[in-house]
Predict the structure of Quinolinate synthase.
Amino acid sequence: MPRLDTAVHDVATDVIAAPEGDAPYGGVVADEAWAAEVRRLATERDAVLLAHNYQLPEIQEIADHTGDSLALSRIAAASEASTIVFCGVHFMAETAKILAPEKTVLIPDARAGCSLADSITGEQLRSWKAEHPGAVVVSYVNTTAEVKAETDICCTSSNAVDVVASIPADREVLFCPDQFLGAHVKRVTGRDNLHIWAGECHVHAGINGPELAERAAADPGADLFIHPECGCATSALYLAGEGAVEADRVKILSTGDMLTAARATEAESVLVATEVGMLHQLRKAAPDIDFRAVNDRASCRYMKMITPAALLRSLREGADEVHVDPVTAERGRASVQRMIEIGKPGGGE
Ligand code: SF4
């Protein structure tokens, strides 16, 4: 548990006020009393607590499982608990509900959205499909349930290339919503009939090539761990191609695969290009390695809306419950299942 305040107070009397505007829930300190009350309420609700790798360290530490979005959804489906508390953003909790429709799924703050998932709506995807009849739709897991329901095959950053490669070469492919992951897939598959939606995540797009090049030059012995949604993924491959950094130093990885690579690398330092919350799990996985963010301002404000106060409120009130209508859930589930059948899905973001 990271630096818990050991002051004893009666957390049951903590009042959690409704936040103003889009501010997160606040006013609760993540101390030992909070941790004990969270555990007690989770047991009372028969709830399993899941936390994404980008969550605040204190939320990651109190969770039963920490991981990437798809891995957590699969844990949700396999869990014997009747309630899932998903500490992440809304589309992730929806994916858990799609895979575990019989369970109660709670997100501690339903306002925790995602700029990437919001890049395309179900209506926009239906219009795009109408312009390309017969095309196969491949969507990254960072999409709403409505978009998944309009999708033929979902993909994660680990298997996007395999998913697209599994589609007959003469079929058009519509890839959404992330343009950087789409560009990565197009480059690797060399496919001309792949159309890419111009969506992006504001956090990952803010990690840019020049910044990466500067950091890589200043630390020539470091490995580079890059999430393919990063604006710098292309630059990283370009730098490797130019010989500016050794090609085997550049690793394009999902967040789950970053942890595996962290345990395996012999590098003494690693530059990490993804949301800064990831550093917590990396440092735990390989404490002797010096992990540094390429951009330490790359923090997702939606992920950080899941505060200690929001989690306490969620467990006290059984809020905010996530609903997906059964028809949308069934169609969305089919696109996720097709992805799993094609190969190692990894974990997505
Ligand atoms: S980091 Fe980007 S893709 Fe991830 S939840 Fe935040 S806005 Fe969405």
Remarks:
- The pocket of iron/sulfur cluster is lined by residues 89, 114-116, 142, 201, 203-204, 275, 300, 302-303, 349 (CB under 6 Å).
- The mean pLDDT is 91.
- The chain has three domains: 11-114+302-323, 117-200+327-342, 207-293.
